[in-house]
Amino acid sequence: MKYSKLLAAVAVISFVMAGCASVAHIEKDDSVNFSSYRTFAWVETKADKDDSTKTPVSNLTEQSLTKAVSAELIKAGWKESKKPDVLLTYDVQVERATKQTNDPVYSQSATRYYYNPYTRRWMSVYYPSQLMGYDRNEQQVREGTVTVNMIDAKTDKTIWQGWTTDEVNSKNLTTKEIQNSVKSIFKKFDLVKN
């Protein structure tokens, strides 16, 4: 009995934790054999080709992101190298968005009592609640998108891209938000490399 309660508690906690994770998406080149890649290096990201400065991201955000991605790749058996097989780039974007919620509205259930003169008894009739419609709410939120790109160092082609979008609390992503985003992206990377 205690074992089943513990198992139920673990199941509920895992469902709650899975619900908190952001959803990641990936795109990959199907013609690429990922087992041939073992080394990586980071390259600078520019806003466009004519831009001489990097994409405006704070140093702390850049350090957190590169550290988290490098840790995930090292965990997968890759190494950082000066002559890499794969070049890594990233993009971080925080923008305003509108979040919509639709809450169901139900009528109130009721019980009415009637007197039946033929049986000389009181009878109850139960009226259950019914769906009356939905209450729509809109609120302004900030969404942060983290994108990681892998580029073949020899051909200069993008071979893999992973991204996730989640609600954030400020203009910049925190270290914890970045780590959660990178972990959810690289859960999908494990499926690609096999």
How does this model look, in words?
It is a single chain. By secondary structure, the protein is α/β, with parallel strands linked by helices. The protein contains three helices and eight strands, in the order H-E-E-H-E-E-E-E-E-E-H. The strands form two sheets. A six-stranded mixed sheet has the order 1-8-7-4-2-3, with helices on one face. Strands 5-6 form a two-stranded antiparallel sheet. Helix 2 packs parallel to helix 3. The model has no long low-confidence stretch (mean pLDDT 81).
Give me the secondary-structure topology.
Elements (H helix, E strand, L loop, with lengths): L1 H19 L3 E5 L10 E4 L16 H17 L3 E2 L5 E21 L3 E7 L4 E7 L3 E22 L5 E11 L6 H19 L1
Parallel strand pairs: 2-3, 2-4
Antiparallel strand pairs: 1-8, 4-7, 5-6, 7-8
Helix pairs in contact: 2-3
Considering the chains and any ligands shown, give keywords for the structure.
28% helix; alpha/beta; 3 helices; six-stranded mixed β-sheet; two-stranded antiparallel sheet
Structural class: alpha/beta
The proportion of residues forming helix, as a percent range, comes to 25-40%
Low-pLDDT parts are: none
Radius of gyration: 27 Å
* Main sheet attributes: strand count, strand direction, barrel closure: 6 strands, mixed
**Span from first to last CA?**
40 Å
- Order of SSEs: HEEHEEEEEEH
- Numbering strands along the chain, what is their spatial order in the largest sheet? 1-8-7-4-2-3
- Mean pLDDT across every amino acid position: 81
